[in-house]
TrEMBL record:
Pfam families: Abhydrolase_6. This is Alpha/beta fold hydrolase. Keywords: Hydrolase. One of its GO terms (molecular function) is hydrolase activity. The keyword Hydrolase applies. Residues 42-238 form the AB hydrolase-1 domain. InterPro entries: AB_hydrolase_1, AB_hydrolase_fold.
């Protein structure tokens, strides 16, 4: 955790605190902004090579999903996914996509019993955290605690150029080609972000090592996405950055991805203007986060209507 983030957490007016969530023999670390009487609990899952601080960006106060959610009456918890934070040394079986989901199902059980979750639990996932959120929602099935999910920075298939490298005989799972590890591929135009974002002396970017097994699961996602999406039975919101270079995000690609959620009662998709892959770290974070909370409100309404009809 950077000094700037530590200062933000200890500020007298900050609702954000460090949290530990016990699951089995380990504890997942993270950040939390807990409301006394929340409308719902939002569980946020960061992408690969990042950590929970992604949702509490230190470059500007408008970036924080946690602070905004608390202001809107939500409890928000951003967890370090298995393999990150306090669990960097756990076995690969718990860091695989299926292993992560198993631990997160346990985590949801703990959160639902330890905290007031209001109308239920709403998932927000970015990049590989979006992959995890979709798979977690699929695993939860008809669990009435789950309201819905909002995912961004993920699609059904990779950009053509990246896909060619991923499936070439010369490409290993450990490294991406240089052009897909560049700043532009994950960030887009630098003007999309507060000036402090790329100041190395401040160290504000929430970077973390990527577990090798996670890289392998990421490569295989296009083979798995249709199966997992079809098992999701709650409302789904898909958001794509204006400058998304990792995934195929032409209108037909977005429609194809949305169409995979055949058992979801409500599926919406949006393209977020003035944003790159790491949307929650840029100026577009606030409009994107507001839209995510608005969709959470839609999910709450849907749940109430569903309950009234039963």
């Amino acid at each position: 955790m950077t000094n700037q983030m530590s200062e933000a957490l200890t500020a007298a007016d900050s609702p954000v605190e460090v949290i530990r969530v016990p699951v089995g023999s380990v504890s997942l670390s993270g950040l939390a902004a807990l409301h006394d009487s929340p409308r719902a609990l939002v569980l946020a899952l960061h992408g690969g090579g990042l950590h929970a601080g992604y949702f509490h960006g230190g470059a500007h106060e408008d970036l924080s999903l946690l602070t905004l959610g608390h202001q809107l009456g939500y409890s928000v918890i951003a967890l370090d996914r298995p393999g990150y934070g306090t669990t960097t040394d756990i076995e690969d079986e718990h860091v695989s996509l299926s292993g992560q989901v198993a631990l997160l199902v346990e985590a949801i059980g703990h959160l639902a019993s330890a905290y007031d979750v209001g109308a239920g639990i709403f998932l927000v996932g970015h990049s590989f955290g979006g992959i995890t959120a979709i798979t977690l929602a699929a695993a939860l099935g008809d669990d009435t605690r789950l309201l819905g999910l909002d995912v961004n920075g993920v699609g059904a298939k990779y950009d053509d150029g990246l896909r060619a490298h991923l499936h070439s005989s010369t490409f290993g799972d450990a490294e991406l080609p240089t052009e897909f590890r560049s700043r532009r591929s994950h960030w887009g135009d630098e003007e999309f972000y507060p000036p402090a974002t790329f100041d190395r002396s401040l160290d504000l970017r929430p970077h973390a090592p990527v577990p090798q097994v996670e890289r392998i699961d990421a490569v295989r996602w296009p083979e798995r996405v249709a199966h997992e999406a079809a098992r999701v039975t709650v409302p789904v919101h898909l958001t794509f950055a204006e400058q998304e270079y990792n995934w195929a995000v032409q209108p037909d690609d977005i429609d194809e991805f949305a169409g995979l959620f055949v058992n979801s009662p409500l599926v919406r998709s949006d393209v977020q203007a003035a944003s790159g892959h790491n949307t929650s770290l840029g100026w577009a974070a606030r409009p994107y986060h507001l839209r995510a909370f608005a969709f959470a409100e839609d999910a709450i309404v849907y749940q109430r209507l569903l309950g009234a009809r039963q």
